[in-house]
Write a structure and sequence with these properties.
Length: about 120
């Protein structure tokens, strides 16, 4: 069962070096556990530390500058689409809810996902 993503859910990129808390900017009215609920449009990230994706132009340039020795470069995510798939049947301010099974693609090749969220769905007997 998927859990809803909220402000401060921890996200990680497959090629990033550091986790990053999710910032919710798509809506400011719906909350869960006193935290704003995320939608699939919350796809803006400043950085995941250093990027090690071989198709990132900055990594290519850093590697070339070191004469072919692979060198990570500062991460600047290139996100052009919303999270997928989200929860299409649960709308938050007209946008699908973001859950912890959704993925977000970086143009350079990384996959961003939610590692942990403070909003947990609890199944009762």
């Amino acid at each position: 069962m998927a859990n809803p993503a909220v402000m401060s859910s921890i996200c990680m990129c497959t090629f990033g070096a550091a986790p990053l808390p999710l910032a919710v900017s798509s809506q400011q009215t719906v909350q869960c556990m006193n935290l704003n609920v995320a939608t699939i449009m919350d796809n803006k990230f400043p950085t995941f530390g250093m990027c090690s994706c071989p198709s990132n132009p900055a990594v290519i340039a850093a590697t070339a500058a070191k004469l072919g020795v692979f060198s990570p470069a500062p991460c600047v995510p290139a996100i052009i689409a919303p999270w997928a798939p989200g929860a299409p049947t649960v709308l938050v301010c007209g946008k699908p809810l973001l859950n912890n099974t959704s993925k977000l693609m970086c143009t350079y090749g990384g996959v961003i996902q939610i590692n942990s969220t403070p909003a947990m769905t609890v199944k009762t007997p």
